[in-house]
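Hi D.,

Good news: the full-assembly prediction came through. Inputs first.
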Amino acid sequence: MDIMLKKISKSYNGSIILNKLDLEINRGEFHVLLGPSGSGKTTILSIIAGLTRQDEGDILIGNRNVSGLPPEKRRIGFVFQDNALFPHLTAFDNVAYGLRVRKVKKDGIRRKVDYYLSKVKLEKEKDKFPHELSGGQKQRVALIRALAAKPEILLMDEPMSSLDALTKDTIVNELKSIQQEIGMTTIYVTHNQDEAVLLGDRVSVLNHGKIEQNESPDKLFYHPKTKFVARFVGIKNILNVSVMEIKQHDVSMQINRGRSNQPIRIKVKKYPIFEKGKEISLCIHPEKITLKREMKVIDVNSNRIRGKITNKINNGHAIQATIDIGGVMLHATIPKDLFDFKPFEDVWVCFDRDAPHPLCGRRQRTRETERRCLSM
Amino acid sequence: MKLISFNVIMSLIAGCFVSLIVLPILALLTATSFGELINQLGSPIVLSTVLISLETALIVVLLALLLGVPVAYLLAMKNFRGKEILDTLVDLPISMPPLVAGLALLILLGGNSPIGGFLSHHGVDLIFTKKGIIIAQLFVSAPFLIKSSREAFESLNKNFANASLMLGASKFYTFKKVLLPLAKNGIYAGMVMTWARALGEFGATSMVAGCIPFKTETMTVAIYQNAMSGEPASSIAISLLLIVFSFSSLIIFKSRIKRQSCLS
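Then the structure:
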């Protein structure tokens, strides 16, 4: 384990920001802290860096307990959201700053700074001041400034938040390749799920100072474990269902949508957490839903529900359709070339039995509950 | 039409204000001849007042820099108990009448006070000496440097200091290499204001150091003394010289700021 946070708590003016937070990050891992504003992710970085003092708990980097050390003794690189390049120094001098602090000889400084500038293709910009650089160039300089000082770990606080989409894509790729090349343990804070998927080896989703889920991006996005995580990663399809009948491999369920409506029955892959009569939340990824005009083309093993398209949004790559299935709204993401439906058209909403999975609804689970919740 | 009349009214008001500044200076300029001016400025007593004023004001600026910048840094960057009180105390000399400041210093540093008595016993006399002038001028003018420097530190992005610390720099190295260079324009502005205030200081200086020719007589004190004793020519010459000093220090400061903004 390269970074270990043990029972970290922090309050500001009586309001709890972090509450006994534990986090373990492996050596060389690119770990993303994902969460909305105010979830405590920047506070975690600030506490690891030593810029904010925690009320309780310990921070271990490698085998060192750095909890009591000042920031300058922790050997941590930090890339700030606003890049914080020193405006009175050139790009070269900004990158050289940490090396000069460590009293590296002039030749060594020149060699190292030139190496890092070439890594991000900024050799020609080395004599420019920060105000003469573009947003992307500034973030690249900020990144190599942190790396050149040879830290043990790297912390990045929403470094892409002010960049345009094209620059962001380029820098995300550069960042990932540099991180993989040097193998430096990195913690990256963002509220952007796309950055989390592209960069993270593992992602921790934070909510009100607690980690809701800590997993690989694939698991997180296709198997969120709580309503918060599901909603935060963009899965709007959360159904309240009652377990009707449990068979050997699948389970019959009824979608709860008020007393006045006819029940809608669906069949779902069996999970150990299901108990007859129990109410539970199910989540269905919008990409796992398909729409059909005719019933006869639907696989008999699939779930099919009659609904009406109420809205469609073109997001460039796909169509995001909202379908009313009798008081309950389902959202489907359909590739553009497969979507030939009109607004308010009646359609069959189809999804396989293994598409829905249960949201256990708890942040802190024991190993046993975890096993019961999702394993087969 | 309405816009034109608005601009005309604003220009007239601005013209009135400019007249308020220019007319007294013109009055001074026309009150003496060039030959008389040169003659007065060449006299040993006037030269002495000029040298005393320049010397004491220069020392005051240096002392204010040495003592005031750390105070400004603390007020701008740190939160501590009693900060509000310190802040108010630092500003107090700006609002305090100089004569009151002078009287307070006279009582504090006079031979009858414990501090004045202690210093006098050890051979350090402050009353009616150049040292007294410096203390009086420092008391009333240093807050200008502190105020301006504090605003400069406060305007800096807090992450500059954090970034320096994260790169392994000590707090002192960060202060020297990042914060000071970035706050320098505010500090320069404070130095110019302190210099101008010290050079023009009269009330506190005259109370603490009196008016001993060739020893403690500063330019402002000489202006008052000569004007009161029926020698306006000398007062006018020194006054014009003071205006030149103030004007030139402002010009130098502004050209420096302009050059900096062209570079950045």
